[in-house]
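Readers outside the structure-tokenisation community will struggle with the description of the input data as it stands. For illustration, here is how one protein appears when written out as sequence plus structure tokens:
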Amino acid sequence: MIRAYKFLMRPTVGQTIALGEMLRDHCSLHNGALQERRDAYRHTTKTSIKYGMQSAQLKEIRAFDPERQGRWSFSSQQATLRRLDKAFAAFFRRIRSGDTPGYPRFRGVNWFDTVDFPKDGDGCRWDSTPHDPVTRVRFQGVGHVKVNQHRPVVGKVKTVSVKREGRKWYVVLTAEQAQPEPLPATGSVVGIDMGIASFLTTSNGEHVENPRHARKAAAKLEAAQRKLSRFGRVRRDKRTANHKRAVQRVADLHRKVRRQRLDHAHKTALGLVRDHDLIAHEHLKIRNMVKTAAPKPDPDNEGVFLPNGAAAKTGLNRSISDAGWGVFLTILHAKAESAGRDVIAVDPRNTSRTCPECGHVSAENRPTQEKFHCVGCGHQAHADVIGALNALRAGLVRRDAQPA
């Protein structure tokens, strides 16, 4: 299996400048390749340029501009072109499937924050000596950079990436390692119901509090955004130190919320994986759940729209995004795979409207957000617990139906 590791780097002042130049030059390569594809399609009878054609031009590009392109790893530049090719492949795939396509965009220097090295030893070298307290990673054109390795890397390092987040630099490794030993069986199964009032509710009746990290940081974010808005739209060559500090303050607050959300997701998922052999959850289509409310034109007055509940829907969308269900479920599946646990996604329809006692399905079974009261048999319980119970039962049915 493949596992990723992310470590903070401690570059010197000169190395920081070199890392910034590496990102800048790879960004220039990405934008030039994108411009070539656009021009070829528009001006030469809709000709499509592929990755192989652009990769074959790298030698000429490096020879023409040795100061900016020739100093960096050839493989890392190929990886940048391959990222652009994947973006175009995703664009055409969305068109074929009928989704809303997003055409690949030009990247600004501050938006291009990652350089990939497809193979350890080709343009980069991860140097982790067991008895050496200082770990370093070497990059072509930069040198040996100190790394704050807070945990050992297990397995053989396959790829290395450089990532910039604000003023900090990180190295991201992927290592190939043997499948770990599964955790001892507990004999316990559980269903979970994702929510807003509670982050999740288990079929055992336990409620995990929703931390609402973005809401707690809303006041600070509002103040930081207000301070940044005073500068208005400022040209790059006219930006002052105060403007840059205001931008950095907003970015730091958003990064802190993201880290808090990830930390909560990791800890919650780890607790579930350690305690249960099977975890069943609803297969939520979060992208559809957070769509903007559709406008309602007034049939009697042209150009006039009726109330559509957009304000309430916006608040709900913000709460769903703040909960981070998608991130949590991704982490839960990854941890369960490493631990040898089963995670099953089930159809979410009517999970909170179906009575677990008599099987009666009705919207009237759920008179309020929290209360479940079956109109058929009179069974009462918390609505989220009912949803978790029904998810668990559906998950057990799916597990038993799978061929051995």
